[in-house]
Amino acid sequence: MESKGRCLCGAVTITGHGAHKGVHVCHCQDCARWNGGPLMAVEFEGGIEFDGPVRWYRSSDWGERGSCLQCGSALLWRMQSANMINVAVGCLDDRSIFEKVDGHIFIDRKPAFYEFADDSERLTAEQVYAKFTGQTE
């Protein structure tokens, strides 16, 4: 199974291989600044391939964000220590393959003006840092 996607201008193409590992939503301030709101992203079991001018920006000690160098579309989030890349769901051509949100991170950073109706796992910033870095903020 493959999932195809691209940036707004089409200069970057993305292919996700295999089944997806579920949609996760990040409510951190960095995602809001980069993406204009919460980032909804997905990891694929078989990894991803991308082609085109991606600019990587190291936004924290453990993560990088990939955007199209031409149109600026927010496309990829990479955890350096785990060699894990997540794809922004909005850049995928067929979003109908996703049925629900599987989890939220940085839920304590979510502003009050929006809500998600799902009942999936919600991790605070402290829980996220402990899970991925073994440290607290």
In brief, what are we looking at here?
The protein has 137 residues and is mainly beta. It has two helices and eleven strands.
Describe this entry's structure for a reader.
This protein is mainly beta. It has one domain (2-113, 120-127): Metal Binding Protein, Guanine Nucleotide Exchange Factor, Chain A (Beta Complex), CATH 2.170.150. It has helices at residues 29-35, 125-133, and strands spanning 2-6, 13-17, 20-26, 39-44, 48-51, 54-58, 63-68, 74-79, 84-88, 101-105, 121-123. It has an 8-stranded mixed β-sheet with strand order 6-7-8-9-4-3-10-11. It has a 3-stranded antiparallel β-sheet with strand order 1-2-5, with no helix packed on it. Strand 8 and strand 9 (84-88) form a beta hairpin. The model has no long low-confidence stretch (mean pLDDT 94).
In total, the number of domains comes to: 1
**Portion of residues within helices:** 10-25%
Strand content: 35-45%
The strands making up the biggest β-sheet line up spatially as 6-7-8-9-4-3-10-11
Number of strands: 11
Largest sheet features: 8 strands, mixed
Poorly predicted spans: none
| Cα-based radius of gyration, to the nearest Å | 14 Å
Identify the CATH class: Mainly Beta
Distance between the termini: 38 Å
State mean pLDDT (0 to 100 scale). 94
**Strand and helix order:** EEEHEEEEEEEEH
Helix/strand-derived category reads: mainly beta
The CATH level-2 architecture is identified as Beta Complex
CA-based shape:
globular
How is the CATH topology named?
Metal Binding Protein, Guanine Nucleotide Exchange Factor, Chain A
